[in-house]
Predict the 3D structure of the following.
Amino acid sequence: MVALTLVEKLVHWVEPAFVTAGYLIIAVAVLLERSVFIGLIVPGDVILALGGVYAAQSKLTLVTVIVIGTVAAVAGESTGYWLGRRFGRRLISRIPLVRRLAHQLDAAEQYFARHGGKTVAIGRYATAAGAFVPFSAGGGRMP
């Protein structure tokens, strides 16, 4: 019962923002969540769920929430892939904590050549890993 009260408080607290700019909030949050590593910080799935709550209350339109969420997710994943493809190797070689992984990029390319489609499809539904899959696929030169 306490958890329901906390959820109700959250829904009530963010309601003014969603009534004013709900579609924009959903688009930005989902786009950021699905792009490079920001998904570890931005709770796009939670914000998308809040969009569903407000759609159920007729404050947003469900079809619009679904379309915006889908387009933003594809755009975020495409951005993450592009960044990985364009800057992946250079970025990895410059970050001290992951620099030692640079030699494994050839193995990543081979992995994505064999299992890339499955990895991307499953990674879309893995919350924490989903933030890394598009960038990794781009860095691994997946076609």
